[in-house]
Amino acid sequence: MTFSRIWHEHYNPTVPTEITVPDTDITAALDDTISRFGSRTALNFLGAPITYADLGTQISLAAGMLRDLGVQPGDRVAIALPNCTSHVIAFYAVLRLGAIVVEHNPLYTQQELVHQLNDSGATVAIFWERTAAILGQASTSTSVSTLITVDVARDLPLTKRLLLNLPVKKARDTKAQLKATPPAHAQRWEQLLASATPLPADHPRPASSDLAALQYTGGTTGTPKGAMLTHANLVANSIQGAVWTGADDNPGTETVYGILPFFHAFGLTLCLTYALRIGATVMLFPKFEVNSFLDAQKKHPGTFLPAVPPMLGRIVTAARERNVDLTSFRYAICGAMPLDAQTAAAWEDATGGLAIEGYGMTETSPVALGNPLSDQRKPGHLGLPFPSTDVLIVDQEDGRTPVQLGERGELLISGPQVFSGYWGKPQETEQVLVDIDGRTWIRTGDVVVMDETGSVKVVDRIKEMIITGGFKVFPSQVEECVRQMPEVEDVAVVGVPGGDMGEKVVAAVVLAQGATELDVKAVQGWCEKQLARYALPREVIVVPELPRSQIGKVLRRVVRDNVMGGSAAAG
């Protein structure tokens, strides 16, 4: 197949069209950083710094400890921790042994934890005390034979740890949020490390083709599946990010704010693999809180912020109220949802830097496209394919035939960051990985258009497309129209069973401040000049808020379930 690759012409001049992926594991890049920037602060957890040299020592001790507990290459090791120093140490220690990291949301319910643990077959779990307590209540057995609990409070600076013991309500509440009583059979992380011996430097390294991580995904379309990411996938994506941002040209200078959860592929790559590859100092936050962010910014000004768009808006608003300077940030990279022009402009006005939208999925490690870090960026666009990455936009029906430039079609991606399949699910793998002319492509399920510069813009998701009366309705188009109404703060559009029509279009609306009601006739009247009649909402439901994922993405599946379950009152 011949590619025009028109997007290469619109790369920044310093960005190569192709990258070379070394035949190494992901921990080799960290070893190189340690040798070059050993005295530089690698991590700063709420005021507790650790240098790259000390981080390397702690990772070696943790790897030696896990080896002595019987962890072998290929074993799955579950990690469920908030962003903290111990999380980074555990992540790299597992990978150095050739074992496979299985990241979990530390706030998962018992049912979610049990399902994913048994699906991955993890035999060792490194859990936050609160997560371990939830697991310990499980009546159903799991594959885990060794449970290690982490007291996150021990990663805090000494002064903050002492404050937790004050006999005041705030201290008691904070301590209760951080700590819990783990199961009696659990072993303590800090005690195991205290008696550990370092992993020998000549311990066999994993191959680049070995699995590095199982990242669970698919929560918006059904039961989560474990995406199999190899060391080569993670290495490739960290290099692609480094050349795209220009960080390879000036390593050891960035300060990255780690407000995205590390258990999510976006946070994992940009804050754990990319950031440490380029010798950045990573400011660690157990959860995103604007005031904590701004407090840290005053002491340790950041230069690079991976985020989702709503975070940018909240930071800018609060910074203006508190008179906190944000001009140290040279760029913010946004994903998971569209970056609207207003939010981008507000961030760029406050920082003097750039707000850049990118695109990816867990299955692409995760970044596959990005806007140029220049005045060629296009808010609302996913951007250009990354170096060594090709895209096809194909007919939505057959999933193979390329469409004309400017026409809608499903986005297919091929590149070194594309995963090898879903763990233990060959049928699901076959549904998303397709062979076209001897090359493997992943079907994203996203409907996009490409303009004359090669820049891609998402239109909708195929799985969320509504079929009503034989017509196809794209939810995001309806949402864009409804969101312009003065009475509307936010909206999610879904399709629910609609009798002979197949599905009917339903809008779940969050009212703007001051608005008290909104009926379906008002919405239809507003939208009929922009939308075809079959795309007009047939029902409007007023809700107090829209359900979102951990990183702020609206979960249309949950909205649809709520609508069908009658959990909200119809407007």
UniProtKB/TrEMBL annotation:
Natural source organism: Jonesia denitrificans (strain ATCC 14870 / DSM 20603 / BCRC 15368 / CIP 55.134 / JCM 11481 / NBRC 15587 / NCTC 10816 / Prevot 55134) (Listeria denitrificans)
Keyword annotations from UniProtKB, A to Z: Ligase
The protein, known as: AMP-dependent synthetase and ligase
Residue stretches making up the AMP-binding enzyme C-terminal domain: 478-553
GO MF entries: ligase activity, forming carbon-sulfur bonds
Lineage top rank: taxon: Bacteria
Boundaries of every AMP-dependent synthetase/ligase domain copy: 32-423
InterPro entries: AMP-bd_C (IPR025110), AMP-bd_C_sf (IPR045851), AMP-binding_CS (IPR020845), AMP-dep_synth/lig_dom (IPR000873), ANL_N_sf (IPR042099), ATP-dep_AMP-bd_enzyme (IPR050237)
Pfam entry (one): AMP-binding
